[in-house]
Amino acid sequence: PCLTRLCSPLAEKTGKVLGEFCRCYKEQYGVALFNSVRYEIEGNGGPQAQLLHRKVPLEDHVIYSGNLFQYIEENKKWRNRFCVVPHNYGLVLYENKLAYERDLSPRVLVNSAGYKILTSVDQYLELVNSSLPGVTPKSGHSPILKCPTDFPLILWHPYARHYYFCVMTGKEQEKWRAVFQDCVRHCNNGISEDSKVEAPAFTDAVRMYRQSKEQYGTWDMLCGNEIQVLSNLVMEELLPELRTTIGPRLKGKAQERQRTWIQISDAVYRMVYEQTKAQYDAVMAKCEQERPQMESTIRTDMDQIITSKEHLASKIRAFVLPKAEVCVRNHVQPYISSILEALMTPTSQGFAEVREVFFKEVTDMNMNIVNEGGLEKLVEYMEKLSHLAFHPVKMQSCYEKMDQLKLEGLQQRFDVSSTSVFKQRAQIHMRQQMDDAVYTFETLLHQELGKLQGKDDLCKSIQRILERVLKKYDYDSSTVRKKFFREALLQITIPFLLKKLAPTCKGELAKFQELIFEDFSSFILVENTYEEVVLQSVMKDIMQAVKEAAVQRKHNLYRDSMVMHNSDPNLHLLGEGMPIDWGEEYSGQPEAEPAADKRRRAKQVVSVIQDDEGVLPYEVGAEALLQPGSPEPREPEEPDRGAAPSSPAGVEEIREALAKESLGDGVKAEERLTNADVPSGASVQHAVPASPKPGADVPSEPEVPHAAPASPAPGAETPSPSAGTACHQPSDKETGEEVAPPSGECSPPQPTGTTESSEGVQTEF
């Protein structure tokens, strides 16, 4: 009830924040459009990449699928779920595997942007206790969550609902953790870099808005797509006030108050998300409507705009530069080499590991072809190799190198809230470089296949192409790392300088506004020009530091003078061709494969776990399946419904419950929900994995992230299709915006002719 009374004030506050942001966005849109057109006309002199970039993304694969337990908050019970991670990195949870194979609606759709993956209940309880100060369960009382096994996987978000999972073994936990982290990494990077106007306008508007609130430095919640980031921006301002207003009114035990607070925060987040989407879409539409006229003015008056901007910059430079140079000399310059060294060591180790993993995978493939022979085996291996960059477990040894990144005292000095921004960015670069190397290799090999005579020629050709690709990788990885180091140093130092200079400079900037012609005021902003001058004051020192690091060759960086121009003039022409489908091209099938069948044979990137006993605790015999229309088993009421079964007896209880309620022919159709990362109209298919042969890619002992990738054996791939769901627009009840009392049970809408369980259907943005 207290939340209902606050709906109007919350909407008003949200509208105010969004109004201020939209004003910033419209200003930055004109600047970004001018910069884009200028870049298009003047071009760039940057080094040319040697590796090919995949223009058509791989979409015929599933990253991972398997069973795990999920804690259902509505009825406070653990349930078995079949989880599918499609190529778009959304988490899609089904009632069971049969529901997935029959293309029924998923139970839960999760976009994991902004989430943290926790593998300890204690970690989670610490975050929950800090989210609502003054509300901490007394020692000896049951905590908000108890896990029935020792291997939890918890998705925690500062504003949205939390998701609780657990598995039976540490090996499963490690694999799922790698998969979940890859999902978070991908979803966090939700603002498309292909957009040369909207993306920079949005990120600059976020930065300018936060700086207007005296918030400088990196921001951990710049996660997801534009709507998610903007919702986080609003929640950052709403939450303290909401906590002060609602916190004291919460009733019940500490655990119940914590649980209620999480539900309230999630409900507010959803309300904010809907309002944000409407307002942001409106301002986007207005900017797009005005774009043709603005672009026409820019192209017509480009020279005059540039001259006007340079005149403004010269005046601001004369005022700001002396102060900025003193600040750089005293507070930044002495620390640049230390920051750079802290960045370079883990980043270079990660890129070296990418090179090593790629080399080992190709070498193992070549050795297996020598032993087994034949083009057919090459096709099998190449289909797996093409997805190497999207294999979370094999790439984990590369990603985890960035965990060593520590800025220590520098982090406090430069107001860097967390190093996660830099870790994640480097990991995304690693994945991209791996995919570029793989794509270049398969393109060159595909070109050579028609010229080869026998197995010996094939193996020699693979080795020769591998060496060519590694040389190109070394050059490109050096270029990417140097750019990453420069950008990271700027991200760390520029906000610090702006904050230092603000008391003496920011108040004086208004007087420079009169230097801008009114016709050009949409494309030249005093604040942006001021920041460019501050950037110039430190850029020389940053460039020099990176150059000296390259000369030392300590981290295998090429010097700037070493430029590979057109070393492979025909290679980039090959990259313009159609994508290579190894299975389709060399399968010997005379007719084109229907799209539905192609989805059905889609490969699963990560092999399914098999524990030592060879039987997963989730698998239930056919005799235990319910008949259509069978009711769910009723379980006796317990005094404390918030407490989950304790281990190990709780595991047995879960197994018994699963044996009773595992769905078969009685799986019920549910209404579909929309989610930002689940494509509308796509269907879900699945093929039952074949039994692996001895020594196959589905091991009896699961893969560990630290272990070197094993060489695959023939016929070892476990077929599994790409995942997606067909969706319709959800109603208010479906989106879960109505927060039920903590002790109550949710009753979701029931489609005609079906029987819904009390768990309901959940969705996440």
TrEMBL record:
Domain PH, residue spans: 61-185
Bias type Basic and acidic residues, positions: 632-641, 652-674
Matching PROSITE patterns: PH_DOMAIN
CDD domains (alphabetical): Niban-like
Biased composition (Low complexity): 699-723
SUPFAM superfamilies (alphabetical): PH domain-like (SSF50729)
Pfam family, one: PH_Niban2
Biased composition (Polar residues): 752-765
Region Disordered: start-end pairs: 625-765
Family (UniProt): Belongs to the Niban family.
Designated name of the protein: NIBL1 protein
